[in-house]
Amino acid sequence: MGQPLILGRGARLVGRGACAVVALVSVGWIVRDVVAVGGPGQVWWMWAGVPSAGDAGQGVGASGPTDLTLALVCSVAASTAASAPSVLVAAGVLTVALRLPSLWILTSDWTRLWADEGLRTLALTGAAVSVAGGVVMLGAAVVGRRAPGHGAAAVRPVAVFLLLGATACVRAAWEVNRFREYGWEVYRGALVGSRNNVLSLLHTPAAWQALTFVAFASVAAVAALRRRGSARPLGLAAATVAVLWGALGLSAAVKGGLYRDLGSLPLNAQLSLASSLWYVMAGALLLVLLARRGTDAAPPG
Questions:
Q1: Residue 145 backbone phi and psi in degrees, to 5
Q2: Is residue 2 part of a domain?
Q3: Which tens digit of pLDDT belongs to each residue from 182-238?
Q4: Is residue 54 part of a domain?
Q5: Which of 59, 199, 223, 279 is least buried, going by the fewest C-beta atoms within 10 A?
Q6: What domain range is 239 assigned to?
Q7: What is the pTM of this model?
């Protein structure tokens, strides 16, 4: 039997420290918004893109769904990265991918209208620290790896493959539809960020989030089918994003009263609501299937 993939003690401490820093930065921005924007409910609606009446008089929002995602993923990674380099890889790639757009968005002139220079500088510093933390996680996983080998088989690999693959296809289909409907100029704003496509200072552009998820979920699906241990952390990260997306979409639909007369809604609105429901259901099932703890152990040789 092959040796399990493990991290050296130094790499383990560095990786866990980087995960903890990213998680704390993200939690800090969420707490800041709960105080400045007017409570957790207002923050949630801001993330969902349907701010409540009276929000205009509150402070500027800084956090986004990315902060909750990274807080959850990096907190779990900090506690489970002792013997699984792939956990650090998943957390590191997700952190870099979701935080990178903030580095150029917060230096754009149009963000000067949203907040004073001090808050923008603090947000930019936090984003840079998070990206650096993600790079450190990746470095610790690569440099600190002690025993080569293949990953352990994922739990129910076919089921995980189908759920991840189907969810990635649903999200990719929406991105194709968005591109065809609005054209490149508008889609570019949703991809790299623009005044009309960013909801808060640290909000990751919608198309960027979507493509990151599609890539993550696709890689995790293939890893599951090939019975690689990396499918578990990658799949758990993708499932976390899916559940959060779905919950935000369903919340917006409930607040807008869309559920009251589904039959009269346009087809796109019906499909969007169905997609949000699928994200929650598929993501929750994936979390259950992949939650069993394990290490990146090699199969019998």
A1: -65, 130
A2: no
A3: 899 899 999 998 888 888 899 999 999 999 999 999 999 999 998 887 888 899 999
A4: yes
A5: 59
A6: 9-290
A7: 0.88
